[in-house]
Design a protein that fits this description.
- The protein is 44% helix and 15% strand.
- The radius of gyration is 17 Å and the shape is globular.
- Helix 5 (154-174) links the parallel strand 5 (136-141) and strand 6 (179-186).
- Strands 3-2-1-4-5-6-7 form a 7-stranded parallel β-sheet, with helices on both faces.
- The protein is α/β, with parallel strands linked by helices and 251 residues long.
- The protein has one domain (11-245): Rossmann fold (3-Layer(aba) Sandwich).
């Protein structure tokens, strides 16, 4: 029986879709019936392709470094020449930690290129045919640092604050043309990006005690919300930055 969350017949492009949160997102999309194009620097995890085979779905991998705008343009053109992309998930991101006074400008530029400029460029490139069809879903990955400042990650915080605002700006232009643009702000997630925090017992305890749900998030937690935003169940959801944080923002 079809449900509002059924993505059968849809194709999703997921940046960084082969590991971490991206793997959870790609897996959830496959489970919901979509085929997935993983856009990433590294190959997709073997478990993802194995699961696709079990479900009768397809996974394609496009190797791409999001730091280079020319490469993004070429990769998008290649994908769109052979696939109708119904769903775009801008998941890939990077961060570096330095005290603000010592933050290297080259690191700042790289973080902004990957976390913000690439997101906007991909929204333009994949959004154009969506607008022509009058239908499409875009989900950007923001962060709790879209709302808060964080410590020793000024570039990451700035980029994710901008992703939240970009999501709203695109909503204002595209919602009336059939394209839903929303963002997810993950809370503290059990992924490689947070390895330093997870390895620090004092900081881990400080963070964990503030999460009302009593646990750190898992990639599947984000994947399930992506499926919701990519489905017809979210047809009237536009321009939202949805915190998926175990209640962190409520504490």
């Amino acid at each position: 029986m079809s449900t509002p969350f059924d993505l059968s017949g849809k194709t999703a492009a997921v940046t960084g879709g082969g590991r971490g949160l991206g793997l959870g997102i790609s897996s959830a999309l496959l489970e919901a019936g979509a085929d997935v194009i993983v856009v990433a620097r590294s190959p997709a995890a073997a478990e993802l392709t194995a699961r696709a085979d079990e479900l009768g779905r397809q996974v394609h991998v496009v190797r791409l470094d999001l730091a280079h705008s020319e490469a993004i343009a070429s990769a998008a053109q290649a994908v769109l020449s052979t696939h109708r992309v119904d769903i775009l998930v801008n998941n890939a991101g990077t961060q570096e930690r330095y005290p603000a006074i010592d933050f290297p400008l080259p690191a700042w530029d790289r973080i902004m290129d990957i976390n913000l400029r690439a997101v906007f460029q991909l929204c333009q490139l994949f959004g154009a045919p969506m607008l022509e069809r009058g239908q499409g879903k875009i989900v950007n990955l923001a962060s709790l640092l879209s709302f808060q400042g964080g410590m020793t990650v000024p570039a990451y915080a700035a980029s994710k604050g901008a992703v939240a605002q970009l999501t709203k700006a695109l909503c204002n232009e595209w919602a009336g043309r059939g394209v839903n643009v929303n963002a997810i702000a993950p809370g503290y997630m059990n992924t490689d990006m947070n390895a330093a925090l997870l390895a620090d017992p004092v900081r881990l305890e400080q963070l964990s005690t503030r999460i009302p749900a009593g646990r750190w998030g898992q990639p599947q937690d984000i994947g399930d919300v992506v499926v919701f935003l990519a489905s017809r169940a979210a047809a009237y959801v536009h321009g939202q930055v949805l915190a998926v944080d175990g209640g962190w923002m409520a504490r």
